[in-house]
Amino acid sequence: MRVDGARALLMSLLEEKVEVVFGYPGGSVITLYDVLPEFPIRHVLVRHEQGAAHAADAYARVSGKVGVCFATSGPGATNLVTGLANAMMDSIPIIAVTGQVAVGSLGTDAFQEADLTGITLPVTKHSYLVKKASDIPRVVKEAFHIAATGRPGPVLIDLPKDVQLAQCEFHYPKAVDLPGYKPNYDAHPQQLQRAARAIAASPRPVILAGGGVIASGASDVLTALARKASIPVVPTLMGLGAFPAGDPLFLGIAGMHGSYVASRALHEADLLIAVGTRFSDRVTGPPKGFAPRARVIHIDIDPAEIGKNVRVTLPIVADARRALEPLLELVPEGGVARRPWLKELDDWKAEAVRLVERNVARGRRGAVTGTADLAAGDRPSGQSAFEKAARRRTLSPLEVMDRLGAWTRDHEAIVVTDVGQHQMWAAQRVPVDHPRAFVTSGGLGTMGFGLPAALGAKVARPDKPVVLVTGDGSFQMQLQQLATIRSENLDVKVVIFNNGYLGMVRQWQDLFNDKRYSAVALGQWPDFCKLGEAYGLRAARATSTASLKKYLTETLECEGPALLECMVEPEANVFPIVPPGQGFEQVILS
């Protein structure tokens, strides 16, 4: 069949069973958008290209498929870069298709020209500049294979506008031949036997579960292994959902804001079984002080991660599921032998509660009540009802999060977060019992990720409730996506933690810079309820426990998209926190 390049691209996407793309048109992709209505592919029109990348990212996280986004050349394409970097850091498979100036104009600084393959080289798994229409089917086949196999990641296809118009014979390849790209999936049998013996001999083991467990579909096998061998589990931020939060072996998240018992367990363990994690600095702190008593078994599909940050005793380069399945058969039951270790962990949980209560009691004298105004220079003139409410930021963020977490668990909702204090409170206190039910920006820590990610999650799973937890700072970075949510009639619920600050930056300035607040007070604006209503969302504001009880349920259970603004304590901090550059011994509990 003879077709033009634009149709060849879309026909190739259909061969890869693509059902939806997120995008924003422009001059160099007019041909692509001209023929797009001919194909049974849903196009979701975002209101900023960065949102297209984040939406495709979340679509991939929730569905387990490859996400796809479109953008035009120049600024449209460069607006994708943050989203590509986010997906690269978190190992998320997406395909970005960008327009480009004509092949003959490359390198001439033509209107809206940008060297996308050069710009995206560090933030993609691979990138293509297609110069012949006949190459499009092969390139698409390879791109999807690269994005979804091995360690997943984003791939860019840069498509000049004259290539979109050029004619070619369409033949979609049945197989991929990439001699230099051969991911290893199966674990070495002898390494598995050594791992099984190490686990059987360990009285104090811990499993560290990363996002690779979820990516490989290994959550059920990891859960079975932990229960069979009575091994407690600590997920990373990306690993939330890899092991059910309601299980007695669940210890809470690891890292800078990890639970006291999880951090102490990692510190005291004699064996660490790390699966699908890259040992980021937010998990380990100074690597030399991380799990200092433990032998380390590291299972990961990316050989570059083995030994990169943490010394590994027993490396296993393999897909997580294909390593854990045979390991499950080799590992003996461990219930009786591990009872002292599990009892010690229970004692630490009780100890953490006592320490927090003691510290809180000591700090009550002269403590900030949570009703303090912002700095005088940030106060608006006038006394509107909104401005008065903005000064009454009295809700405890933990109360909001606990009530929200109870609802999301009861309704098996997908929880999406932005980045900041609210993200850490959600990771600590929203119970996640299933994989692909917690969506957040991990490695890149991208503010503005949340709203486009929530719409991408809802497109992926229209049958599931989707709740976005965001802050007044993060929300304002991509709030224009409310138009996409409304126009697509996506039933997304938005819960904004409004404390009037860039909360996490303010917290660091509070704890580590002698409370010298600099450029973190956001003031009283905007009125998020009026903003939500302007975009056609139902909106409400909670300023007290009574109004929270009323409006939270109404917001979460109403029909259609809705927004709830929660006026939370301005100077509430996230605890525990391990100070930057410090080890577990310096943890601040409250």
Structural class: alpha/beta
Largest sheet: 6 strands, parallel
| Shape estimate | globular
Gap between N and C termini? 67 Å
Helical amount = 25-40%
CATH second-level architecture of the largest domain:
3-Layer(aba) Sandwich
Number of domains: 3
Q: What is the average per-residue confidence, as pLDDT, rounded to a whole number? A: 93
Count of separate DSSP helical elements: 24
State the CATH class of the largest domain: Alpha Beta
The low-confidence parts are 363-382
Number of distinct beta strands: 19
Question: In summary, what is this structure?
Answer:
39% of the residues lie in helices and 15% in strands. It is an alpha/beta fold and 590 residues long.
Short key terms for the protein model shown above:
590 residues, alpha/beta, Rossmann fold, 3 domains, six-stranded parallel beta sheet, 19 strands, 39% helix, 15% strand
Describe the 3D structure.
With 590 residues, the protein is an alpha/beta fold. The protein has three domains: 2-169, Rossmann fold (3-Layer(aba) Sandwich), CATH 3.40.50.970; 189-342, 3-Layer(aba) Sandwich (Rossmann fold), CATH 3.40.50.1220; 377-567, Thiamin diphosphate (ThDP)-binding fold, Pyr/PP domains (Rossmann fold). The chain is built from 24 helices and 19 strands. The strands form four sheets. Strands 3-2-4-5-7-6 form a six-stranded parallel sheet, with helices on both faces. Strands 15-14-16-17-19-18 form a six-stranded parallel sheet, with helices on both faces. Strand 11 (271-275), helix 13 and strand 12 (295-300) form a beta-alpha-beta unit. Mean pLDDT is 93; it is low at 363-382.
